[in-house]
Amino acid sequence: MRTNPLLEKEFRQRMRTMRTPVIITGYVLCMVILTFFLLYENVQGQLYLVQPTKSQQVFVILSLLQMVVVAFLTPAFAAGAVSGERERKTLAVLLTTPLSPIGILLGKILSSSALLVLLVVVTLPVYSLVFLYGGAVPQELIAVLGFQLFTIVMIATLCVLFSTIALRSTWSTVLCYGTVSVMMVVFGAVGYGLKMMYQQNPIELFSLHWANFILALNPLYVEASLEGAVTGTGRDWLTFIWFYVVVNLVLLIPSLWRLRPQWFSRLPGGRSHTEKQYQ
């Protein structure tokens, strides 16, 4: 199996620096300290009083906190993936290699999300502290872990596509953090607002339908529903996956146009463009 050379180069550049082990070690230490603090606070210093319900609360808090951290860290690694190459004048060289535009985008997405995936995986032993006291079951952990990994790759994909379309890293970063903020904050606030409208007037099923749909686009709500912390529809994770897969596929078209504009020149109404116009 042939390895993507861009992915291999990015892995070597990112993983061989001192910053990577420092980030991983610091993150795991913070999670361990937070886990002990939450367990200690829940029983007010008497660890033998830890109950499964208390342990479940700690699991929910830790996993939601981890989702917030990785969601807002992902743009920091992916927002300048392609626009950075363009600003360093190395994108033209990259486009002359045998790598296809899809291969370039795939290499950037995987390399941008690799460190975040590693951060999530190395915290698995921390969750074992919670399992010691019961409350959470392995199926919940697997579901939460899988959902977090999907969310990281999905956000990294969005950021790399924005980075390709926006041409400049500044605009790409603004678009990435704006999108993550909408996902994490705006969708949650609007969804709960519509739910409150339905509770005040139960006849308005329209509000309930849209509340469930918009809340299903919020990663924190979907993760909480997987853990049983909120009452979801049971298919929120499916709505989350198909919606963002469609968004990424739609953004893929202008991204390919930025990288290989001559591919689209033969389409009806298409103009003759070259890569040089976007570098």
From TrEMBL:
GO molecular function: ABC-type transporter activity
GO cellular component, one term: plasma membrane
Pfam family name, one: ABC2_membrane_2
Domain of life: Bacteria
Name of the molecule in the record: ABC transporter permease
